[in-house]
Amino acid sequence: MNPIKPSNTNTWRMGFAALVVALILAGFFLAAGLDLTQGSAASSPSLSVMVPSSFSDVAGAVSPAVVNIRTEKVVKRAGPSFRHFQSPFGRDDPFHDFFEKFFGDRPEREFKERSLGSGFIIDKGGLIVTNNHVIENADKIKVKLKDGKEYDAEVVGRDPKTDIALVKAKGLPGFHTIKLGDSDALKVGEWVVAIGSPFGLEHTVTAGIVSAKGRVIGSGPYDDFIQTDASINPGNSGGPLVNMKGEVVGINTAIVSRSGGNVGIGFAIPANLARGIIEQLQTSGSVTRGWLGVSIQDLTPELADYYGLKDRKGALVGEVFEGDPADKAGIKAKDVIIEVDGKKVEDSRELSRIVAEVPVGKKVTIKVLRKGKERTFRVEIVKRTDEKETLAMKGPMAETELGMTVAPLTPQLARQFNISETEGVVVVGVEEGGPADQAEVQEGDLILEIDRKSVKTLEDYQALIGEVKKGEAVSLLVRRRTGFVALNITK
User: Fold this and answer.
1) Residues of the chain with pLDDT > 90: what percent?
2) Which of 197, 341, 416, 434 is deepest in the core (most CB within 10 A)?
3) Is 163 assigned a catalytic role?
4) In which region does residue 346 sit, left (phi positive, over 0), alpha (psi from -120 to 50) or beta (all else)?
């Protein structure tokens, strides 16, 4: 059967109608001052540049330098248990020992745990930037290029506090590379492209805009994330976020999602924050940060009013540690630090980042407000250590035989770990290889219950842990950014 075709008369009528509509639209656009030949408003000549017709040029230039990362590590886990119910009598159950003997937890077994991530090459010799959580504790690392070639890789250095790692592919030099751009120059609303291996789908290209800058999501003390709606999913971690020039402006790191998939809220570590970290990892394999020797906090509206400040910019010094740089220079508690070497200080988090990036041994000029008057000090920055970082947290803490350090929930810790609750104790340190580490307790966990008993204060925690005998198991209910988690630890 022949397909139905319009008659010549109908064709003519349709063509005439289309011509009339086109003329009407042309008149409308001309009256509005639009240039139809350019496809943009005459008053907005940059619009055609702002809305790219294609992302293929950027993707084609960047993709050869993006790699898929596969890791493998051996972990020990307890064997399966056959106890499918909980006795209402607990350990007082007369049959407790019987069931423990014949149906208790099985011995630990070794399992191979595999994970996927992404990375990008910054050096022809095969240096690759990725996330620390992609390669942490990995026994084997393999990287795969776009052309399908695979290489073994080894860790050069890593920095858990910023979740940045540097690995090197073992192979002949001559890899495609990509360079870091200026993330400070990024503007909200600007186009960006993410490339990586979401769910193992290698070299997936997605595009979106910069949704926000300077996001704090509670992942660590140096949070300063770029937020983007470019689709980022598990497996994208460590991959590049690039601008329209094909420069890396961020390292894709985290997403906000209840389902585990993309909902349009992804986060990337800014290139300018990563640059200094990468240089240190390449040189020494670790990161050294500067230390000023103060505990600090943000200015509330009430504090700003009390100190007679016009705005809330700056960081209020809560305590100066004796013998440390700030103390030697003459900085005092209640001073408001507003500037470091010409860099304006917006809040306490920004001051921490600025000082951390100062090379150890360098003298900086610090400007403070003291009783409404500006004063200037010269301070020599020293090396920040874990012990000094613990000092900066302030307040009482408790170390237990569980292999972790906890502290009361303070406003500072709540901001640092993005905690909305007002009661509980926070895990501020986990001993590597200890019982808490083996039970997968994480720094930033908020402990709410111990053996189903409420924990509101440090005293509650210490009392309940004190009741647990050596060798006994204790159950914890903790709150993480991802939700509630139940953990079992043997003391």
Assistant:
1) 42
2) 197
3) yes
4) alpha
The Cα 287–Cα 276 span in angstroms is 9
pLDDT given for residue 93 in this prediction? 54
What is the arithmetic mean of pLDDT over 318-327?
A: 89
As a whole number of angstroms, the distance between CA 425 and CA 102 comes to 37
Nearest 5°: the CA angle 336, 162, 179 is 110
CA geometry: angle 334, 337, 343, nearest 5 deg = 175
How far apart are the C-alpha atoms of 441 and 461, rounded to whole Å?
A: 15
Q: Which domains does the chain have, with CATH numbers?
A: 1-51 (no CATH), 56-287 (2.40.10.120), 290-385 (2.30.42.10), 395-490 (2.30.42.10)
- Indicate if 133 belongs to the active site: yes
pTM of the model: 0.65
The predicted structure's pLDDT at residue 64 = 95
The answer to whether residue 84 is catalytic is no
Pick the catalytic residue from 63, 118, 159, 163: 163
pLDDT bin (cut points 50, 70, 90) of residue 35 is very low
Catalytic residue among 197, 211, 237, 348: 237
At a CB cut-off of 8 Å and minimum separation 6, what does 214 contact? 224, 225
Q: For residue 458, what pLDDT is reported?
A: 86
Pairing mode of beta strands 404-408, 425-430 = antiparallel
**Residue scoring higher pLDDT (161 or 340):** 340
As a whole number of angstroms, the distance between CA 108 and CA 279 comes to: 40
Asked if residue 189 has pLDDT above 90, the reply is: yes
Contact yes or no for 398/379 (Cβ under 8 A):
no
DSSP state at residue 417: T
The pair of three-digit structure tokens given for residue 470, joined into one six-digit string: 């050596």
Residue 38 has pLDDT above 60, yes or no: no
pLDDT at 94 over 60: no
Q: What tokens does 450 get?
A: 């111990």
Kindly write down the DSSP assignment for every residue of 46-110, as one continuous string: THHHHS-S-SHHHHHHHGGGEEEEEEEEEEEEEEP----S--TTGGG-TTHHHHHHHHSPEEEEE
- Cα 372 versus chain centre, distance: 37
How long, in residues, is the chain?
491
Direct distance between the N- and C-terminal alpha carbons of the chain, in angstroms, rounded to an integer = 83
Task: Using the predicted structure, report yes or no on whether residue 117 has a pLDDT greater than 90.
Answer: yes
| Catalytic-role residue among 63, 133, 352, 460 | 133
DSSP letters along 4-52, please?
P---HHHHHHHHHHHHHHHHHHHHHHHHTTEETTTTEETT-TTHHHHS-
